[in-house]
Predict the structure.
Amino acid sequence: MRRKRRHAWSLWFPALAAVGAFLGLLYLALLAPNHFDDRRGRIVVLPRGSTFVGIADSLTASGVVRSRPLFIFAGKLLGWTQTLRAGKYLFSDGVSNFDILWDLHSGRSTANVSVALADGWTAAGYASVLAEEMGVDSARFVALVHDSSFARDCGAEGGSLEGYLFPDTYEFYWQEDEAVIIKRLVSTFMRVYDDTLRAHARLLGLSTEEVLAIASIVQAETGLERERPIIAGVYYNRLRLGMPLQADPTVQYALGNRERVHWKDLEVASPYNTYVHTGLPPGPINNPGLSSIRSVLYPDHNRYLYFVSNGRGGHIFSRSYEDHMKAVTKYRKLRREREGNGRM
């Protein structure tokens, strides 16, 4: 009887040992902690297009993964070798291969990036910031903004989303998809530009596109919030009289946002050139903030038709061309004096 028991045990022992070894391998591959003695954790950037083996190499080189073969085995075991998301990840000391793979598979533990998008920047300007701080494809971002089909899908009235990208501070995943970013910016605008503002625009006989077009010019003309309703009033006066807006920022936009506009530039052949064409430009020239949008909806009711810089960050407003030219002469004199003193 004892011999039979010993014989049975000799048969079962290899099988149990094999099961134990396999369970041990599973533990090491999936659940064993990866220690790298860094309380702050470690950030690893995995670019788009990374292969699973490339990801394993990066994690091993950064010290997050202790055993490359075990990590690769775990990925294949889970079937996630083709579903890992690129991005910027923060891993804590003691993280297991399963936790790492789950983070990469779901993207839920991706390190967020805070990005400030300023009032009055163009889509191209936002694209540059996002490319630098988040690693997005700036060319694809700009292309999507100006894709008429995509713009309509996002709720734009015109063929572009320029003007609808609401300026604010956002948090995104590293290398977030460009379409996702744009939709987030547009949805923020749609929320901020609420029913009350839309209803007031309708009372003024303005579409959303027209509100944004005027607001973008106002935004570009002044950095002083108190001046924005006044400047909006100036442009309403000009539109009512059939005068061209003659807004330098529209010419700058037509020229690719050149910093300075020269006399010859005022004749540039572009539908955005409001020196040549009366009425509003085809669309917004930047992405205005709420203050500029509200200034268009609630303008100052004045009789001004002209304004020029006062040399101190603000403007001098005039009702007549004669008074305007006096203000221009005064500004030019001040400018020459400052240039002579090396202050400009």
The chain has a mean pLDDT of 91. The chain has three domains: 28-106, 112-192, 205-304. Residues 205-304 form one domain.
